[in-house]
């Protein structure tokens, strides 16, 4: 177990040694975690260091280059505060609220978000397009009481090299009170989810003037509280148009680092990552279970990637991966993307305060209820925005993950032979194999392979988990692809 802890924390310790702000809370936390007592005998058990680690090199984090560092430095807590304050000022943003009132209701909020996005796009030299796709949702006998227009605000920054490959970041701009169908009450929704919308908008502002290799989409969706309607519409629209969405993040309730008992955790954001994909066919699901691939879904590879590029002193954030779709009894806008077959994850603050979400604004027994802006931590949101920025920029500037990766199972062998679809992608420099012990949560070792589409590694596929990733000429690497028998 200590061996696995060491391997899991090694990237953190390396990041704290070679990145700036060595006295940051993140660096201090990393060193504290590594300060367990030294004991020359702790690795003496044969099982503790098995399989042998002689194949490949220890995997180190991918730290931001200068351009990404500049992006992270531009994220402004004051701008995030201004966005949230404006969204709160609309009184309610309930999906069923007025769409025509110029100062109150979801329509006014939608129009303001779209106006702001258009102002950001002005700096893009025509590369960022703003759309407001919508449809009329009919009553559903539950939380849609009458026909209502569901509108998403979408800012699409076209990739300069691979514009057909998309990465999406989203927050929802609708709100609710204690009664999910009360569309007249004040529901400020500062944390849930003006905080997530602020991340999409702030990143759209900063990245509009830049040129990612692949396309990045910054979204504010509606209808989340009534049933994920806006995200469902967007995900299905992409699927129907065969859009190659390679990753999606929803930021939902990322506005506070303080729990209901007063506990503060301002340097942590959770990422939720689904295990077995619900889109797997029955046959593929059986194979996945047989080969132990339940912890290597596309969503979990995406989450591992986020930790590798965004858990460092440039963001100052720790990113625990929660191995489930979402919190118990809850849902989020990443779900429709997963159901459409896309890799998607959810970011959420570490400890929620349920007095400040889904509540009527009131004081009861001396306790202030309601999702008020006074309970939001703008510096914390800025750090979460940095996590998103590091992940999105690193994804969009890396080559696409390898496709059709297979491992040869036709022969009994202690070697592992892999093949994948050859690519002529402009960004591509070559490929690497990643591996880890079967009970390790993160990749531990890397083996350079070159610009090939087949490789044999002198390490048994029976004993470790493998993945194959693409590496660009610029040093950016893709999420790994888990190989299936072939």
- What's the average pLDDT? 91
- Total beta-strand segments: 20
Q: Return the structural class.
A: alpha/beta
Percent of sequence in beta strands: 15-25%
Tally of separate helices: 12
Low-confidence runs? 1-44
Q: Mind describing the biggest β-sheet?
A: 8 strands, mixed
The first-to-last residue Cα distance is 33 Å
Report strand order across the widest sheet: 2-5-7-6-8-11-9-10
Structural summary, described in words:
The structure is a single chain. This protein is 30% helix and 20% strand. A hairpin with a 2-residue loop joins strand 12 and strand 13 (367-369). The strands form five sheets. Strands 2-5-7-6-8-11-9-10 form an eight-stranded mixed sheet, sandwiched between helices. The model is unreliable at 1-44 (pLDDT under 50). It is α/β, with parallel strands linked by helices and 486 residues long.
């Amino acid at each position: 177990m200590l061996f696995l802890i060491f391997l899991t924390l090694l990237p953190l310790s390396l990041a704290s040694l070679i990145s700036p702000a060595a006295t940051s809370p993140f660096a201090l936390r990393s060193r504290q975690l590594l300060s367990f007592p030294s004991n020359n005998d702790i690795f003496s058990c044969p099982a503790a260091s098995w399989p042998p680690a002689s194949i490949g090199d220890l995997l180190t984090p991918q730290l931001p280059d200068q351009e990404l560092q500049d992006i992270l430095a531009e994220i402004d807590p004051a701008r995030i505060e201004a966005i949230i304050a404006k969204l709160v000022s609309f009184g309610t943003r309930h999906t069923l609220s007025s769409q025509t009132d110029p100062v109150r209701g979801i329509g006014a909020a939608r129009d303001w978000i779209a106006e702001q996005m258009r102002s950001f796009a002005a700096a893009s030299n025509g590369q960022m397009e703003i759309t407001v796709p919508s449809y009329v949702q009919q009553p559903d006998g539950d939380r849609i009481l009458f026909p209502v227009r569901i509108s998403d605000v979408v800012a699409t920054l076209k990739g300069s090299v691979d514009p057909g490959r998309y990465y999406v970041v989203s927050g929802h701009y609708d709100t609710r009170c204690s009664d999910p169908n009360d569309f007249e009450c004040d529901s400020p929704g500062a944390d849930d989810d003006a905080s997530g919308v602020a991340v999409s908008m702030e990143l759209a502002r900063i990245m509009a003037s830049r040129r990612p290799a692949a396309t990045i989409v910054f979204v504010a969706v509606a209808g989340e509280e009534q049933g994920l309607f806006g995200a469902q519409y967007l995900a299905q629209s992409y699927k129907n148009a065969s859009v190659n969405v390679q990753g999606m993040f929803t930021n939902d309730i990322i506005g506070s680092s303080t729990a209901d008992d007063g506990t503060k955790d301002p340097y942590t954001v959770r990422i939720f990552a689904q295990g077995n994909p619900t889109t797997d066919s029955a046959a593929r699901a059986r194979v996945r279970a047989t080969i132990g691939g339940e912890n290597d879904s596309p969503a979990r590879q995406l989450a591992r990637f986020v930790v590798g590029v965004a858990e460092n002193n440039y963001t100052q954030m720790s990113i625990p991966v929660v191995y489930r779709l979402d919190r118990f009894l809850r849902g989020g806008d990443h779900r429709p993307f997963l159901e459409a077959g896309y890799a998607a994850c959810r970011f959420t603050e570490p400890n929620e305060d349920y007095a400040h979400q889904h509540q009527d604004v009131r004081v009861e027994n001396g306790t202030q209820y309601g999702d008020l802006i006074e309970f939001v931590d703008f510096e914390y949101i800025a750090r979460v925005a940095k996590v998103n920025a590091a992940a999105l920029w690193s994804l969009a500037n890396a080559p696409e993950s390898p496709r059709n990766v297979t491992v040869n199972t036709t022969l009994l062998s202690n070697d592992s032979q892999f093949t994948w679809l050859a690519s002529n992608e402009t960004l591509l420099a070559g490929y690497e194999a990643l591996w880890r012990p079967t009970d390790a949560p993160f990749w531990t070792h890397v083996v350079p392979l070159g610009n090939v589409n087949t490789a044999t590694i002198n390490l048994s596929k029976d004993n470790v988990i493998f993945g194959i990733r693409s590496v660009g000429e610029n040093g950016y690497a893709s999420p790994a692809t888990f190989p299936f028998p072939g």
